[in-house]
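The instructor's notes for this session suggest beginning with a concrete chain rather than abstract definitions. Hand out the sequence below and ask the class to guess, before any prediction is shown, which regions might be ordered.
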Amino acid sequence: MKRREFIAGLVGALALPIRVRAQGDLPHVGMLMTPGENEPEARARVAAFRDSLRKLGWIDGQNLRLDLLWGDGDATRIKGFAVDLVMREPRVIVANGTPAVAALRKATRTIPVVFALVMDPVGLGYIDSFARPGHNITGFTFIDFSLVGKWLDLLNNLAPATNRAGLIYNPETTPYWANYLRSDEATSVSKRTRLIGRPVRSSAELESAIAEMARAPGGNLMFPPDPFNVVHSERSARRSQELGLPTISVYRSFAELAAYGPDTADIFRRAASYVNRILKGEDPSALPAQNPDKFDFIINLKTAKALGLTVPPMLLAESSEVIE
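After discussion, reveal the predicted structure:
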């Protein structure tokens, strides 16, 4: 009897640390998303990331612990979450969007950071070069500023009366748009259409900026990458429709007239591959940063008809999706 009790006690003593170790020593990955949790496109990105990790052999709760935080498009919240994640000391952090990378760069220079959907990482000083990032940060970009010219061309073809386009952005979450708008590149992007920056920081300012572009004929709107634009996409779409303003966006879920931009879910799948490589011991400073290689062009024929616009057959042929 005593022998059986001794063995049982020994087994119990050994089993307890094994269970604790299994829960506590899982590879830990942090993930900072700049949009809100209720945004469908943002949830699709996280789902693509998880699915890619699963295919690489990593399953949250089994052999991986994933801490997922949502910034809700709020610059202060994003900065706070960046500090929070660094204090948790994960093995690697996935940073969705330029505001998240900016905050994490201030919070850590040692924990590997894989960015997804970031603007101009070399110009902003996050990496030394695409080929050799050189520090603890690497990943996958979203767009470069030359895409603004593409949006303007599409607006001019879809809405020939276009003479000015308002670019909506929040200077607190994406201050680089202000620098771009002051550049020679922005002033020469189109001889036909005047590009106008419309900085907004609140719902009221957003409403005012949209209304201002509708005060005279020929006004249009562009919604570039910005967590503020993601959070307020429904409000922007509704108000633009009410005022009869043609719009174009980088976001697939905001194709009121048209959307043109990278396949964001694919970028998150690729980010998972870098997380996998870093968890297996590779140095982020030696993993080259990469640009998107898959793009979507979506046209909304329903909106075009409501605006009295005729979509050229050439653009229909080039589109990857047509919303009837």
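Then share the key points. The mean pLDDT is 90. The chain is about 45% helix and 20% strand.
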